[in-house]
Amino acid sequence: MTTQLSEVSRPARLAADDEGITIDELALAARNHGMPLEALRHDVTPQGLHYLLIHYDIPHLDPATWQLKVAGAVETELTLSLAELRALPSRTVRVTMECAGNGRAHLRPRPISQPWLVEAVGTADWTGVPLRTVLETAGVTSSAVDAVFTGADHGVERGVEQDYQRGLAVTDALGDDVLLAYEMNGAPLPPQHGYPLRLVVPGWYGMAHVKWLRSIELIEELFTGFQNTVAYRIRQDREEQGEAVSWIAPRALLVPPGFPDFQTRERFVHPGPVGLTGRAWSSRAPLAAVEFSHDDGRTWSRARLGPDDGGRWAWRRWSAVWDAVPGRHTLAVRAVDAEGNTQPDDGSWNRGGFANNLPHRVPVTCLS
Amino acid sequence: MTTQLSEVSRPARLAADDEGITIDELALAARNHGMPLEALRHDVTPQGLHYLLIHYDIPHLDPATWQLKVAGAVETELTLSLAELRALPSRTVRVTMECAGNGRAHLRPRPISQPWLVEAVGTADWTGVPLRTVLETAGVTSSAVDAVFTGADHGVERGVEQDYQRGLAVTDALGDDVLLAYEMNGAPLPPQHGYPLRLVVPGWYGMAHVKWLRSIELIEELFTGFQNTVAYRIRQDREEQGEAVSWIAPRALLVPPGFPDFQTRERFVHPGPVGLTGRAWSSRAPLAAVEFSHDDGRTWSRARLGPDDGGRWAWRRWSAVWDAVPGRHTLAVRAVDAEGNTQPDDGSWNRGGFANNLPHRVPVTCLS
C-alpha cells in the first residue's frame, strides 16, 4: 500500500496540448474563487468578492489564545497577543492584491495548478500595525538578512509537508506600508483572509501576504524554504533556479459590457456607443496609461484614466467609449506603467504561470 | 457575420466520455464559488464562504430608488420601498441552501453547466418580511395560481434573452417561512447575494430564491417561463417535459480530515483514532440518520447526530471516529431522512445534473 507523501503528492507539470481542465484543477477553482469582473465597478471590493487563494485548509484559530512570536536575530524576543497588537498605533492602507498565478489558465502550454483566468484580484482597505513598529520594538540585529513569516495553515506540496512559510528581505520588511493586518474593510479579518492576523506587503503578489500569521523569525542567511525557492520562481526549464516572484506586473481589466450568455459568459450589446470601464494597476512603477482595442489588438487607443486617489497600491479606474457595430468583436485592454512595463502578447510564459499578464480579451457580439 | 443570440448561446449538452472540464465550465467555476468544506465546522457559514451561483451579472442597484412591485391577480397593487419593507414586522430563519446542480461534475456523463463538485452549499440566518405578510396586504385573488418573481439580473440562456424569473405556486408562496429577505447574518445583503432584496424559500434548491428581486406578479395560470419549464427540470431524455426541481434531497458532507496536498486536495492522516465531523440535511423530510463508511461504501455504520437546534431548514452536525491504519482509504458518508430518502450510488443521474446526491467520498492516505 502507498503510505508515502510523495506517492500521492506529485511534481508540478504542464498540461498536454489537448488536455482539458482536470478534476484537480476544478477542485481548486471550486474553493479558491476569483472576483466577478463586474465587481471592478467598486473602489473597494465588497466582502466575499475579493479573490481568494488558500494553499491548504482554512485554520480555525482561537483569538483568546492566539499569539504572534517574534524571534531569531532580534535583541528582545516578543510574544504578542491580539489585544497587545490592537493597542499599538495602527494604519490603514488600500491595496490591490493579485494572485501570482492570475491568467495561468490562458497560457499555452497550461501549467497545472490553480487555474485562474483573469479574475484573481481584489482591493481592500487593510488596517493593522506597521510591521516596522514591531520589528523596531524587538530590535532587529544588523546580522539579520531575511524575516521568515509562518502561517498556521499546514499541508503538502510536491511531496513536502510544511506550514505555509515565506521569507522576505529585512529591507523589504521594513518598508513604509508593510502591515500586520487584523482588519479588512473596517471589520475583523474573515477566517478565509487570515483571521486573526495576516501580513500585507503592498505591491507584491498574494503569496507574500502570509495569512493566519503565528511567527516572525529573523534569520542571518537567505531563506531557502519551499515557497521561496521551489514554488513561486519564474522558470523556463524545470531545472533552473529561476527568478523570485515579487512585485505585481501591470494589468488592465475590463468590466465585460452588455449582458452575458449563462454558459459561455460571452457578451451581447446593441449597436451604438457602449461605455466601457475597468481598472488597471502596476506595482513595479505607477500606472501611466491604459490602451483599448476594439479589433483584437490590431489597433490601440488611449483610454481615459480616472482619479489617482486610492494611494500608491490601489488600482485606478479607466474608461473609454466603443462605437459598436453588428458582428462579433474581440475587445482588448492593456496597461502601461511609468517604467514602460506593459502586457506582452505572449503573457511572459513560464512553467509556473507566474506574473503572466496577457492583455485582457473579451469577445462581444453586437446584435443587429 | 454572426449577430444572432442563438448562434452564440447554444443548447445544453453532455460532455463526451473523455472530455476534460471545458474553459466555459472553468469560467463559471472561477466566479461561482463553493464553500470550502472545512467551513462545515461553522453553524452559520461565515460571510464570503457561502456558495454562490449567479446566472448572469451581479446587478448594481440603488437602494434609494429601488422598489418592489406586487401586481397581477391581487386586490391592490403595491409598490414598496426598502424602508417600507423594513418597517414591517420581520422574521429571521436559518436556512441551509444548496444549488440544484451540486455534485454535477461527478456525474457520468457530465452535464455541461456550472461544474460543482460537492461544495455548493451554505447556511445563513436570513432576516426579512414574511412573503405572506406582503401577499395578504395586496390581497391575492382566489383565481391566482402562481406567483412570478423577477430579478434585476439580465442575460441569455440557450438563445433566450431574459430577466431571471421563477414561478412558485401560490400555496408554496404562502408557506410559513418564505421570506423577502434584506439581511444575511445580521447585515444588509451583500451585492452578490441579492442586495437589496431577495426571495428565500426555505427547503428549496437555490434556483427558487430569486435575488435582486424587483417584482412579484400573481398570475392565473401555471408559469411557463424558461427557468421553470426549460431549465431546472429532471429529464432523462432531451425531449421529455420532465419533473420540476423543488425540495432539497438528503446529503451528508464530511470535513476532509487531516491535511491536504495543495494540487490534488487529497488528504493525509496519521494512524490511530481520527475524529470525523460534518453536516447533513434534507428538506423532503427531517434528517433521520447519517451513515459513515471507511471502506468506500462496502460497510456502513451510524454516525452520532448533533443537537437539532438550528430549526427545520438548517443542516445538522454529525460525528464519528475512524481508526485509521496505514494505506489508502476512501471514506464515504450519506444521509437518510425520515421518509427513507437517501443518497443512491448512481446519484439520481439526469441530463441537467439536478438534485443529484451521490454519497460524499473522500480519499485519505494514512501515513505509516
UniProtKB/TrEMBL annotation, chains A, B:
InterPro entries: Ig_E-set (IPR014756), MoCF_OxRdtse_dimer (IPR005066), Mopterin_OxRdtase_euk (IPR008335), OxRdtase_Mopterin-bd_dom (IPR000572), OxRdtase_Mopterin-bd_sf (IPR036374). Its cofactor is Mo-molybdopterin. Residues 273-365 form the Moybdenum cofactor oxidoreductase dimerisation domain. It holds the Pfam family Mo-co_dimer. One of its GO terms (biological process) is sulfur compound metabolic process. Residues 55-226 form the Oxidoreductase molybdopterin-binding domain. Keywords: Metal-binding, Molybdenum, Oxidoreductase. The keyword Metal-binding applies. One of its GO terms (molecular function) is molybdopterin cofactor binding. Signal peptide: none annotated. PANTHER family: SULFITE OXIDASE, MITOCHONDRIAL, SULFITE REDUCTASE. This is DMSO/TMAO reductase YedYZ molybdopterin-dependent catalytic subunit.
